[in-house]
């Protein structure tokens, strides 16, 4: 009986996903979205800073309070020049779909 209780308890603990796991998946997805927008033959991509926000003043009525992931990143272009840029990825409020990806220098990101 004790063994059955231990097995059931372990199965319940293993099958639960934490909210932190969802946040980690979104962070990885945001990084992949930014990387996909880099110029061809870019190398040495690395994220230098990362911030997660909820946008309460979002003008689009289709999505209320979307999630914004802001990333500071660096990469080397095909000619060897190093670029330090900022980008942001907007997710639906449930965090499962990407609404928009914006890349560029810090003057383009508001």
Please tell me about this protein's structure.
This protein has a domain at 42-110. Mean pLDDT is 84; it is low at 106-110. Strand 3 and strand 4 (98-104) form a beta hairpin. It has a 4-stranded antiparallel β-sheet, covered by helices on one side. The protein has 110 residues and is of the alpha+beta class. The protein has helices at residues 2-15, 19-36, and strands at residues 43-54, 67-76, 82-91, 98-104. Residues 1-19 form the signal peptide. Keywords: Signal.
Radius of gyration: 19 Å
Q: Beta-strand percentage?
A: 35-45%
What is the 3D form? Answer: flat
Helix content: 25-40%
Indicate the structural class. alpha+beta
Keywords:
110 residues, alpha+beta, four-stranded antiparallel sheet, flat
Helices and strands in order:
Blueprint: H1 2-15, H2 19-36, E1 43-54, E2 67-76, E3 82-91, E4 98-104
Antiparallel strand pairs: 1-2, 2-3, 3-4
What is shown here, in short?
The protein is α+β, with helices and mostly antiparallel strands. It has helices spanning 2-15, 19-36, and strands spanning 43-54, 67-76, 82-91, 98-104.
